From TrEMBL:
Organism in which the protein naturally occurs: Streptomyces venezuelae
Cellular-component GO terms for this entry: gas vesicle
Pfam families according to UniProt: GvpK (PF05121)
A Gene Ontology biological process term: gas vesicle organization
Name of protein: Gas vesicle protein K
Keyword Protein biosynthesis attached: no
Amino acid sequence: MSTEAEPNTNTGADRRKRMDLDPDTVERDLVKLVLTIVELLRQLMERQAVRRFDTGELTEDQEERIGLTLMLLEDRMAELRGRYGLRPEDLNLDLGPLGPLLPRE
């Protein structure tokens, strides 16, 4: 067993490569992250609403209100994606061996 410390090969240039931050796209990247989280929550709410519709635990008025709310949210998401030049697939993060964050619809 060696007690010698291995030299640190992480130079500042190596760290910059991994960070890959571009000041010109910070706003768009932040919007992309926020919209990804909102899209994940929207899809989860939509699935929960469908389950509740299927079990019959909602009144007709509740079903209508939930459906309208989900449609409006989807419209606003499309509007924001368009404003920042994002496509729906841009919001789907690749989690490596776990696969994509969002299911493909």
